[in-house]
Amino acid sequence: MFKIINAEFIAPSVRKIIIEAPKIARKRQAGQFVIVRVNDHGERIPLTISDSNIDEGTITLIVQGIGKTTQELNELNSGEFILDVVGPLGKPSHIEKFGTAVSIGGGVGTAIAYPTAVALKQAGNYTISIIGGRSKEYVILEDEMNKTCDEVFVTTDDGSYGYPGFVTSKLQELIDAKRKIDFVLAIGPIPMMKAVAEVTRKYKIKTVVSLNPIMVDGTGMCGGCRATVDDKTVFVCVDGPEFDAHKVDFATLERRNKTYREDEKEALQKYSCKSEEAILKAVNE
Questions:
Q1: Given this model, what pLDDT does residue 42 score?
Q2: Which of 35, 50, 130, 203 is 20 to 30 A off residue 111, Cα-Cα?
Q3: CB of 213 within 8 A of CB of 240?
Q4: CATH number for 22
Q5: 240: pLDDT confidence band, cut at 50, 70 and 90?
């Protein structure tokens, strides 16, 4: 059992959860994830470790409540417990002194880009962060990025805050301004990562993406996270989750990411119905 030390919403349907897990906190590195099982009837889901505190023995997860299990997880409060948290898993981010490193986070992908941005700064890079959201309320970890990076640019799709437009537009603007960029990390929805890869490909800028959106059980046993990279089959959870963006077959990745969509929708509908029934029962009692 893993105790929740603190849980708070930092954006609509996005919850920051700090969990007591001293062994994981000591060993985790940027880019790695954990497998979480909320209860003994729940599925196992992979979640990237956004941060950790070795002294306090805690790890931080940032969870967007989209499916059944993530919504179930986001209903837990401080003082409650999660049944299983296993990790750290996956290969750590490759960190070296590139020069100028740009970390790009789309939506909740910012939570995954954050620990790597910290590691890149600690390695002596000049760090730039571009973080995006649909609107101002969906922008997360801006303060944390400001404390870590040399420059931070916020973009919103609707122009309600920061730069009006997509993260790729801001990246292109920096390139057009002849800014020296040696490395780009992009994490977010698959279409966003694909778009970033297409921008940097023309300029031969080394670019890495995290393919965590496709992971299922996180151990490589289910085969659900198969992807094609450099014309070879890889298992994202054990061979990655980070890969050379210019070698990823995004078309295949997008198709595979839709494999369990109907199952996920059905599970969420059943869970929502049960939740409504529980609320009505509590009210009637």
A1: 81
A2: 203
A3: no
A4: 2.40.30.10
A5: confident
**pTM for this predicted structure:** 0.85
Strand locations in the chain (E) = 2-11, 14-20, 33-37, 45-48, 51-53, 58-64, 81-82, 84-89, 100-106, 126-133, 151-156, 163-164, 183-187, 206-210, 226-229, 232-235, 242-244
Amino acid at 157: D
Does one domain contain both 107 and 199?
A: yes
Is residue 250 included in any domain, yes or no? no
Tens digit of each residue's pLDDT (9 = 90 or more) over 6-55: 999 999 999 999 999 999 999 999 999 999 999 888 888 889 999 999 99
| Pair (82, 111) in one structural domain | no
Q: Which domain range does residue 60 map to?
A: 2-89
Amino acid (one-letter) located at 225: C
Tally the residues of the chain. 285
244 contacts: CB under 8 Å, gap ≥ 6? 206, 207, 208, 229, 230
Q: Please give the share of the chain, as a percent, with pLDDT higher than 70.
A: 89
The total domain count for the chain is 2
Our measurement of the distance from residue 264's CA atom to the centroid of its chain's CA atoms, rounded to an integer in Å, reads 19
Residue 218 lies in a domain: no
What backbone torsions phi and psi does residue 138 show, to the nearest 5 degrees?
Answer: -95, 0
Residue 94 in any domain: the answer is: no
Identify whether 73 is part of a domain: yes
CA distances from 214 to 122, 139, 217, 242, 244 (A): 29, 23, 10, 12, 16
Which residue type occupies 61?
A: L
With beta carbons less than 8 A apart as the criterion, state whether 146 and 152 touch: yes
Burial 70-101 (b: 16+ CB within 10 A, else e): bbbbbebeeeeebeebbbbbbeebebeebebb
How confident is residue 272, by pLDDT bands cut at 50, 70 and 90? low
Nearest to residue 100, comparing CAs of 234, 226, 206? 206
